[in-house]
Design a protein that fits this description.
alpha/beta; about 50% helix; about 475 residues; N-(1-d-carboxylethyl)-l-norvaline Dehydrogenase, domain 2; six-stranded parallel beta sheet; 2 domains; Rossmann fold; about 15% strand
Length: about 475
């Protein structure tokens, strides 16, 4: 029998106070887990309305489980194995704005709504000039959010007490401030008025945040686990025990988030730069760099990658010799964080699939890896060969094949269309790898610069890409690390 409120004797209904853009594994194993914990142990008394950013039916399947699902958290703490299985009871409802736009706006009229959270990947917080206030819904996440906030503003006549606390979890720098700026840009474009813009600026708080928890997602041994649990759970999610949420901005949120009362690992800070740089560049940068290299090498999980002699050494050298030298923080602290990151990658209790990390890899590379390349070159006067090799491997990864096996690529449609066009042309001529590199590096709408202008980068990427095409990734990588 599928998990539902009749099976869960402790099921409770809470008022909807949180609107969440995104229904993926990370949010459910992180934000929704935290809300559930605050509800059960600190009287937070809040539930979540899940907004599915894309036109899919996944939220309806979650609704069939009454928003309930199981989180399994595993890891090693103080030398001891630790595992926690808990049913999460923090999601009240989920909806698809493409099918229920009027209902979506109706929720903006709810006076209890207080928080907005999101995780739409790095590709989600973007300005799309084609979005319109008349779209049902606008295509982008900021467009959807702007329509929600504008409807709320009109409903309550600009009441300052109906402003919201916005907590984006996307891994981009200044995520809250960037989201706020895009909302204001759309407001001007849509001519929503100075009153609305003033309400956004003065009565809503957009926090910059940093999140950290490795969440592999649906467990490989799900059937076995569900037998032990005694019910079916389509949204069973696995993550590591470690977690951290750093929230930068006005301390007002501390009074409304009972995190300190529970001793949760949630930090309220004036500046999260220290936490962000080391986490995004080292942990996430290593993840994004390893995906195309390890997967094309024939490996499938992060643990396999870090424990493989060849790929593992590549990843470790990439972190310690190329990423760390590009950061300004104390070397001892960076090495300590890197050491703990390697240990987390080796966690024997979780299976983090490389393909699950590959979602929107191009925008992730721009945010997580490119800054290390550019800063390393600035400091050392040369390019970091492992990070550049990973870029060449990423371009080859988007060819869409690992030997005779197809790769289920997941990225923005324009990215996938471009790669398909470029690689199809190459298959026909076998002579234009340079054209592929030039077009990808010149994608200014993605990189916010023309990477062909970075001295030596196009030549080095092309060199590695040719080597991968001619020899195969495995032989090319083994030649690189000799």
């Amino acid at each position: 029998m599928k998990l539902n409120k009749n099976l869960y004797s402790e099921y409770k209904e809470y008022p909807i106070r949180v609107v969440q853009f995104g229904q993926g594994n990370f949010l459910r194993a992180f934000v929704d887990w935290i809300i559930d914990k605050m509800n059960k142990e600190a009287g937070f008394n809040s539930s979540v309305l899940v907004i599915q950013p894309r036109d899919k039916d996944e939220v309806y399947r979650l609704n069939e489980q009454d928003g309930l699902y199981t989180v399994i958290l595993s890891g090693i703490e103080n030398g001891q194995a630790k595992e926690e299985k808990v049913i999460i009871n923090s999601i009240a409802n989920g909806l698809n704005t493409y099918k229920e736009f009027d209902l979506y706006l109706k929720f903006a009229e709810n006076p209890d709504i207080r928080f907005i959270v999101s995780n739409t990947t790095e590709a989600g917080i973007v300005y799309r000039k084609d979005d319109s206030i008349y779209d049902r819904p606008p295509e982008s996440f900021p467009g959807k959010l702007t329509t929600f906030l504008y409807h709320r503003y009109k409903t309550f006549g600009g009441d300052p007490t109906k402003g919201l606390l916005v907590l984006p979890c996307e891994l981009i720098e200044n995520n809250g401030q960037t989201l706020k700026e895009i909302v204001l840009m759309l407001s001007k474009q849509w001519e929503l008025g100075e009153g609305f813009e003033s309400w956004i600026v003065n009565d809503n708080i957009f926090y910059n945040t940093l999140v950290d928890r490795i969440v592999p997602g649906y467990p490989k041994k799900a059937k076995e686990i569900q037998k032990q649990l005694g019910y079916e759970d389509e949204f069973l999610v696995q993550g590591e025990a470690f977690y951290l949420w750093v929230i930068e901005g006005p301390g007002k949120i501390k009074d409304e988030f009972p995190a300190e009362k529970l001793g949760l690992n949630i930090l309220f800070v004036d500046d999260l730069t220290l936490y962000r740089d080391r986490k995004v560049r080292i942990l996430n940068g290593a993840h994004t760099s390893m995906v195309p290299v390890a997967y094309l090498y024939g490996l499938n999980t992060v643990r396999e990658a870090i424990e493989d002699k060849t790929v593992g050494n590549f990843i470790k050298d990439l972190i310690y010799e190329e990423i760390i030298p590009s950061l300004d923080l104390k070397k001892e602290e960076l090495i300590e964080f890197a050491d703990s990151t390697i240990e987390r990658f080796k966690n024997p209790y979780i299976e983090h699939k490389l393909l699950s990390i590959s979602l929107n890899s191009m925008s992730k590379y721009k945010t997580r890896v490119l800054p290390s390349i550019l800063e390393y070159r600035k400091r050392k006067g040369k390019l970091p060969r492992r990070l550049v090799f990973s870029l060449a491997a990423l371009i080859f990864f988007y060819r869409g094949n690992r030997g005779d096996e197809g790769i289920d690529l997941s990225d923005e449609p324009n990215i996938l269309e471009l790669y398909n066009k470029l690689w199809t042309k190459y298959e026909e001529s076998q002579e234009n790898l340079g054209d592929i590199v030039e077009k990808i590096l010149g994608l200014e709408s993605l990189w916010e610069m023309n990477l062909n202008e970075v001295e030596g980068l196009a030549e080095q990427v092309l060199f590695y890409l040719k080597d991968i095409v001619e020899k195969g990734l495995k032989n090319s990588l083994e030649g690189l690390i000799v």
